């Protein structure tokens, strides 16, 4: 092994080790012991009610029939009995909790006030949780194993949302299993049912249906579970323990209420924070950020526009595009805050781009153009869903350059910037010519209607030219096909076929592409976004932390002159550093733009955005 190779690998290992150590303390979703919350709920109820343990009898004696709906006090006693029996015998009986889930539903008929309905909802949640835990449905290994474990409790599995038809799940994990840290708000909705993560783990070589290939390998779907009966509750001759029942999964993004087996309309419980937080925190994205920068060809095979939730027809796609040395993980806070807005939940669905940031920006833009085209081909092949024609892109930093290329017609700009002759006149293998054409010739993506640029680096950053940028560029091992074609290009056509600016450097890599003097950035600056597409810009001013750079507004990495672009529908400057996509005022601006996009107004705010910026900075 050469000294150069050893240094490169050693640097990568050191960086990854530092990443692992520093990243452990920043986890936002951590598993906790399941039994604490449920046992505390039960023991707390014992203290407040003073109920005594009663002898277990025939179910029909304890619950005298469906015509006489059990009251809250009877359901409380059943919960106490189940807990006490579990404590005394050391073994849980899943039938007790299945029965409890059903009778808590039936008891809604006799619940005359809101506190009673809320308590019955809590008992139902406890009962569903225990059914999942006792059967091991929260730790099942595959969809068949899950079905077998639910069958042990006499439960089938049903998906209430028609758009979920055909989906299968590996395990069902209560959201309450996780402790949420370092994020606010925690977006929840109180109501009927147990908020869960419907987890699907795909095998490495598993053949997926087309619509599931945009899920991560381990994908957690936001869902709410409830246990419901399948019979007429007015039949008094049925046995509580043998009555047919099923575990039904609901989509809380589209369902706000549910009709229970007792025909009561109840709000559907939901936890919108935990599933997406776990998805971002525990999908290996932190390591992928380093791989995508330093060894981009490893990440190119994983490049995709991912969806955390099943596709929802009629909802406008919002595609989030990260910047250099980053991943979809950077959108954790924004995703969570936007999900706190019911109108945004009702009208939009979120997609998250992943691409190798160590590759040249033209290559990254090619990847994402093809992925957007693939997405629509799978989900709307007939192009009849007009929500696709209203796509919004939200991008950060270098993602701003990539996204600008998505809303721009190239014409001959990039071909002329790279070559001294038209591409068709250059002697190349047809395969090589096509590789160049895909990167240098393109049209604006028709689906994208509006773009929000956050701290874009349109004209580069001086940091890319400084020693830290040069060291980073040296470590990158790009596998771009165009770079590999350089010897063929020169061998067949001579060095003069390449424009002087590219004769030494070629198309280089992602960090090189951010140097203010880079010819690709100069070529991009000659283009203009498609005038039919709206765009907005948010820039940071970090003057309170570092001196202004030559009198310019700067976020510490990008100056105002680099991030400004004529023609913006709006431009907002906030007091923030370069990583402003995590800041509340910036998230609120994105929220405002999404409301504007559908012709609605923002929810009332207690404090104006400008005031919030000042408060935050203080």
Counting H and I runs of at least 4 residues, what is the number of helices? 24
Query: What structural category characterises the helix and strand content?
Result: alpha/beta
> Within the CATH hierarchy, at the fold level, what is the topology of the largest domain?
Rossmann fold
Characterize the largest beta sheet: strand count, sense, and whether it forms a barrel.
7 strands, mixed
Per CATH, the class of the largest domain reads Alpha Beta
**Strands ordered across the widest β-sheet:** 12-14-13-15-16-17-18
CA-CA gap between termini: 53 Å
Mean pLDDT: 85
* CATH architecture label name of the largest domain: 3-Layer(aba) Sandwich
Descriptive key words:
disordered C terminus, 18 strands, seven-stranded mixed sheet, alpha/beta, Rossmann fold, 24 helices, five-stranded mixed sheet
Secondary-structure map with pairings?
Layout lengths: L2 H22 L4 E3 L3 H15 L9 H4 L9 H18 L4 H13 L7 H22 L7 H10 L2 E5 L11 E4 L3 E3 L7 E2 L4 E8 L16 E12 L15 E6 L6 E3 L5 E3 L2 E2 L2 H8 L3 H10 L1 H5 L3 E3 L9 E6 L10 H7 L3 H6 E7 L6 H19 L11 E6 L1 H9 L6 H6 L11 H11 L7 E7 L12 H9 L5 H4 L1 H8 L6 H4 L15 H7 L8 E7 L19 H4 L6 E5 L9 H14 L11 H9 L1
Parallel strand pairs: 2-8, 13-14, 13-15, 15-16, 16-17, 17-18
Antiparallel strand pairs: 1-4, 3-6, 5-11, 6-7, 7-8, 9-10, 12-14
Helix pairs in contact: 1-9, 2-4, 4-5, 4-6, 5-6, 11-23, 13-14, 23-24
Question: What does this protein structure show overall?
Answer:
By secondary structure, the protein is of the alpha/beta class. It folds into two domains: 30-274, no CATH class; 284-522 and 581-617, Rossmann fold, CATH 3.40.50. The chain is 39% helix and 15% strand. It is built from 24 helices and 18 strands. The strands form five sheets. Strands 12-14-13-15-16-17-18 form a seven-stranded mixed β-sheet, sandwiched between helices. Strands 2-8-7-6-3 form a five-stranded mixed β-sheet. Helix 5 packs antiparallel against helix 6 and helix 13 (361-379) crosses helix 14 (398-406). The radius of gyration is 28 Å and the shape is elongated. Residues 1-26, 34-62 and 606-618 have low confidence and may be disordered.
């Amino acid at each position: 092994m050469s000294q150069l190779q050893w240094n490169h690998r050693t640097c990568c290992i050191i960086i990854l080790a530092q990443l692992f150590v520093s990243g452990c303390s920043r986890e936002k979703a951590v598993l906790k012991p399941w039994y604490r919350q449920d046992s505390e709920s039960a023991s707390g109820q014992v203290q407040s009610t003073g109920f005594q343990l009663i002898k277990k009898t025939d179910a029909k004696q304890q619950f005298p029939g469906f015509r006489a709906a059990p009251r809250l006090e009877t359901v409380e006693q059943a919960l106490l009995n189940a807990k006490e029996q579990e404590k005394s015998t050391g073994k849980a009986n899943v039938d007790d909790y299945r029965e409890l889930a059903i009778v808590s539903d039936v008891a809604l008929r006799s619940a005359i006030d809101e506190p009673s309905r809320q308590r019955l909802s809590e008992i139902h949640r406890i009962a569903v949780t225990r059914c999942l835990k006792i059967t091991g449905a929260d730790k099942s290994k595959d969809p068949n194993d899950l079905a077998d474990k639910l069958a042990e409790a006499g439960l089938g599995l049903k998906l209430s949302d028609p758009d979920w038809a055909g989906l299968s799940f590996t395990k069902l994990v209560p959201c309450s299993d996780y402790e949420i840290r370092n994020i606010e708000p925690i977006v929840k909705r109180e109501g009927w049912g147990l908020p869960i993560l419907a987890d699907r783990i795909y095998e490495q070589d598993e053949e997926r249906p087309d619509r599931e290939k945009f899920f991560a390998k381990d994908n957690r779907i936001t869902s709410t579970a409830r246990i419901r009966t399948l019979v007429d509750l007015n039949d008094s001759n049925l046995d509580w323990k043998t009555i047919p029942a099923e575990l039904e999964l609901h989509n809380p993004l589209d369902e706000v209420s549910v009709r229970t087996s007792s025909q009561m309309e109840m709000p559907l419980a939901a936890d919108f924070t935990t599933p997406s937080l776990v998805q971002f925190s525990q999908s290996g994205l932190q390591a992928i950020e380093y791989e995508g920068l330093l060894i981009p060809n490893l990440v190119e095979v994983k490049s995709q526009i991912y969806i955390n939730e099943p596709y929802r027809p009629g909802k406008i796609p919002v595609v989030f595009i990260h910047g250099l040395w980053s991943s979809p993980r950077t959108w954790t806070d924004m995703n969570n805050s936007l999900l706190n807005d019911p109108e945004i939940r009702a009208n939009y669905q979120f997609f998250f781009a992943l691409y190798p940031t160590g590759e040249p920006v033209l290559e990254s833009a090619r990847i994402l153009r093809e992925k957007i085209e693939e997405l629509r081909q799978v989900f709307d092949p007939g192009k009849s869903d007009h929500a696709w024609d209203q796509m919004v892109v939200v991008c950060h930093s270098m993602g701003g350059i990539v996204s600008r290329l998505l809303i721009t017609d190239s014409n001959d700009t990039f071909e002329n910037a790279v070559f001294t002759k038209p591409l068709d006149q250059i002697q190349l293998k047809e395969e090589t010519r096509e590789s160049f054409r895909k990167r240098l010739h393109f049209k604006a993506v028709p689906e994208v209607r509006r773009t929000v640029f956050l701290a874009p680096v349109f004209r580069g950053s001086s940091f890319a030219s400084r020693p830290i940028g040069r060291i980073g560029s040296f470590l990158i091992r790009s596998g771009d096909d165009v770079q590999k074609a350089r010897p063929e290009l020169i061998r067949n056509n001579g060095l003069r076929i390449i424009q002087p600016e590219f004769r030494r450097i070629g198309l280089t890599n992602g960090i090189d592409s951010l140097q203010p003097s880079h010819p690709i950035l100069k070529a991009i600056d000659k283009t203009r976004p498609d005038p039919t597409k709206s765009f907005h810009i948010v820039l940071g001013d970090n003057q309170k932390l570092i001196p202004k750079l030559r009198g310019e507004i700067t976020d510490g990495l990008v100056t105002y002159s680099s991030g400004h672009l004529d023609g913006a529908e709006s431009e907002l400057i906030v007091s923030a550093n370069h990583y402003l996509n995590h800041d509340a005022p910036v998230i609120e601006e994105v929220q405002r733009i999404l409301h504007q996009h559908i012709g609605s107004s923002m929810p009332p705010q207690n404090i104006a955005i400008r005031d919030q910026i000042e408060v935050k900075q203080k």
